[in-house]
Amino acid sequence: MRRFSWFNATSLTLGFAFLYLPMILLIVYSFNASKLVTVWAGFSTQWYGELFRDEAFLDAAWVTLQVAVISSTIATVLGTMAAIVLVRSGRFVGRTLFSGMIYAPLVMPEVITGLSLLLLFIGIGLDRGVLTIVLAHTTFSMCYVSVVVSSRLVSFDQSLEEAALDLGCSPFDAFRLVTLPIIAPAVISGWLLAFTLSLDDLVIASFTAGPSATTLPIKIFSSVRLGVSPEINALSTIMIGIVAVGVITASLISKRASLRQQQDEQAAARATG
Amino acid sequence: MAQPMAQTVFAPWDDPDETPLIRFENVTKRFGDFTAIDDLSLDIYAREFFALLGPSGCGKTTMMRMLAGFETPTSGTIRLAGQDIAPVPPNKRAVNMMFQSYALFPHLSVWDNIAFGLRREGMDKDALNDRVEEMLRLTRLGKFAKRKPHQISGGQRQRVALARSLAKAPKLLLLDEPLGALDAKLREDTQFELMDIQEKTGTTFVIVTHDQEEAMTVASRVAVMDEGRLVQVATPDRIYETPETVYVADFIGDVNIIEGTAAPDGDQTHVIWAEGHDPIIGSTDRAFERGQQVFYAIRPEKVAISANRPEDAVNAVKGKILDIAYLGNLSTYHVELPTGHIIKAQTANTRRIARRAYTWEDEVWLSWTGTAGILLES
Ligand SMILES: Nc1ncnc2c1ncn2[C@@H]1O[C@H](COP(=O)(O)OP(=O)(O)O)[C@@H](O)[C@H]1O
Ligand SMILES: [Mg+2]
Fold first, then answer.
1. In whole angstroms, what is the distance from residue B97 CA to residue B319 CA?
2. What atom in ligand 1 is closest to the CA of residue B63?
3. Phi-psi bin for B76: left (phi > 0), alpha (psi -120 to 50), beta?
4. Which pTM does this prediction carry?
5. Do residues B279 and B270 make contact, with C-beta atoms less than 8 angstroms apart?
6. φ/ψ of residue B344, rounded to 5
7. Using the beta-carbon criterion (under 8 Å), do B150 and A268 form an inter-chain contact?
8. Which CATH fold would you assign to the domain A56-272?
9. pLDDT digits over B120-159, tens only?
């Protein structure tokens, strides 16, 4: 077994403390009985109870969930389609430009994306609400989906699709029956990634949300400006939980898929070797 | 027992009334500036086991992909049963291909892989079951029907790929280096299995290979390709015994090539190949002019080796043994002539020998008959 050296152990502890201490504090204080955020007065789940009675928070939660589900689903469809075009079609006029434009939103400052979307919605006279947030989230999360799916497609053996065509599939059937089932793990992790991105987005949502629809991050941010309340801690804890589950599931799905493949191959080697 | 009727030899290519199943008419395929297939014309007949043979990169896969519909010719036409197939997409062609990589669907079981094409046809359930079971029997895969492709061995995968492409009973089956991944023993077994299946099903097979022995074993006719052109198309024995060019002679099997000038003499042609040596005497159907450059090609197994000059030998040369390659059933002697030529002579090891008759540095005579070799122009 390899032992950690003194130096390694210290830097690891410091690094993780830096990353996770604030979150742990937040989680711990969400179970604080006291109304004062910084004074510990015993364990309690009362703030969770109050949170679930607060209409405004529940509304915001419902909007957030709707936006996340719808936008990540649309983003997955569009992102997968873009990935296929980028990986498959080889060279076509403007391919470099097209791929650059797909990935640009990844590095674009969110403020700019948000502002430009806001201008667009005002320009075409679209009232800000759930629809506009969905559109905005789809826009920025589809490029993440596209990155995840295209990295899978690069290693996808094109002759599988040709074999499907050869056996009488239409091109659409070949995609539906062969390509999609094989790249499904990547598509699902793309969806989960888009879902969690939508869930915790504040900047773009602030630009595109209207008075009729507020998402949780906006709600949290505006209440914090009036002072941190234990309710907010409870809410944030729940969100950390959801996001963590989403991210961990996404990575487990892709890990498991490759692990299972490996195990099966080893089993086959034993059976025949 | 009396044979009521003489068995007819399968040779539709010799019959002028026969119409070919596949016809390449001046087909050219370019990728950008690169010409992969160069003005190629070829007829392949129904029930043939046709082999495309050539070095890597000569355009064999491209030919297959044009037949399957994954590439379209830049110019020229390909006809299948008389019909131009250019406008027909791959999924509408009565052609199936077995891919070089097998291309089995990893998410489907062996059974579902084989059933895949039949399901697309909308075949009814009972007929489909019967057909898949028949294919499993034919390829001896019954035990593995429920496994996924990565749970079976390479040889079994290859048979699944074969079963899957055969299941739809295509008019034409394309096999792209189907046995490339198999070891020698399994390869040989599978070659005979393929021939057996071809005989049972009556499908026309086109097989791509870069292994000349494989082509010779399975094929009714062999096409030797070089840089997108056909060099020679003939039956395996004709390709071996009467190659038309040095390239073909050299590509198929082992051969000694001796360059010289022709000197016709009655119905024989002498090859003047070295000063101070008797000319090589050969017979040929071709007319050579006196002084024309000629290549004399002779297979090592047709060269006899002896300690003394055989009395009645038409052609005989003396040399020194440079090297001996022991191949188990055969031994190949590399003999250096005083002119610097190195001639290979092969003898069959019919007895278990503890001691060779000849060894390194021995002076030996090589001899062969007047019809053993052939004369080629280039
Ligand atoms: N899609 C393609 N684009 C460009 N060049 C190609 C393409 N397919 C094949 N080639 C070229 O055509 C030549 C013949 O290829 P191929 O038919 O695969 O040869 P092989 O006889 O080894 O099967 C090769 O030089 C290859 O590089
Ligand atoms: Mg090839």
1. 51
2. 17
3. left
4. 0.79
5. yes
6. -95, 135
7. yes
8. MetI-like fold (1.10.3720)
9. 988 999 999 999 999 898 888 899 999 999 889 888 898 8
> Amino acid identity, residue B374?
I
Confidence at residue A267, expressed as pLDDT on a 0 to 100 scale? 64
Beta-bridge partner residues of B323? B334
How far apart are alpha carbons B323 and A20 in whole angstroms? 75
A141, A128, A144: which is closest to A206 by C-alpha?
A128
How far the first Cα of chain A sits from its last, in Å, is 31
Q: What is the pLDDT of residue A8?
A: 85
Mean pLDDT (chain A) is: 86
Ordered by start, the domain boundaries in chain A are 56-272
Alpha-carbon distance of A217 to A208, in angstroms, equals 13
Please report the domains of chain B, with CATH numbers, ordered by start residue.
12-246 (3.40.50.300), 256-376 (2.40.50.140)
Neighbours of B92 (CB within 10 A): 13
Helix (H, G, I), strand (E, B) or coil at B273: coil
Distance B103 CA to ligand 2 centre (A): 14
Dist CA B279 CA B375 (whole Å): 13
* B55/B32 Cα distance (integer angstroms): 22
Q: For residue B94, give every residue at least 6 positions away whose Cβ sits within 8 Å of its Cβ, in sequence order, or none.
A: B80, B170, B171, B172
A261 contacts in B (CB within 8 Å)?
A: 106, 150
Which amino acid would we find at residue A137? H
Q: Measured in whole angstroms, how far is the alpha carbon of residue B101 from the centre of its chain?
A: 20
Task: Indicate the helix (H) or strand (E) that contains A131.
Answer: helix A130-154
pLDDT digits (tens, 9 = 90+) for A42-62: 888 888 888 888 888 888 989
Rounded CA-CA distance B107/B99 in Å is: 18
Q: CA-CA distance, B117 to B127, in Å (whole number)?
A: 13
Residues A238 and A45: beta-carbon distance below 8 Å: no
* φ and ψ at residue A115, rounded to 5 degrees: -65, -45
**What gap in Å lies between CA B314 and CA B316, rounded to an integer?**
7
Residue B350 phi, psi dihedral angles, 5° rounding: -85, -20
Residues in chain B: 378
Residues belonging to chain A: 273
Q: In terms of Cα–Cα distance, which of B339, B349, B347 is closest to B317?
A: B339
pLDDT in tens, B149-193: 988 988 889 889 989 998 988 889 999 988 876 778 778 887 888
At A108 the pLDDT is: 85
Which of the residues B67, B114, B148, B150 would you substitute to probe the A interface, choosing the one with the greatest number of A C-beta atoms within 10 Å? B150
Q: Residue A198 burial (CB < 10 Å; 0-12/13-18/19+)? A: buried
Global ipTM: 0.79
Q: Which residues of A touch B (CB under 8 A)?
A: 157, 159-160, 162-171, 173, 177-178, 181-182, 261, 264-265, 267-268, 271-272
pLDDT at A7: 86
Which stretches of chain B drop beneath a pLDDT of 70? Answer: 1-8, 181, 353-356
Per-block average pLDDT, block size 10, for chain A (273 residues)? 76 88 87 81 87 86 92 96 84 76 82 92 90 93 91 88 94 93 91 90 90 87 82 86 86 80 65 47
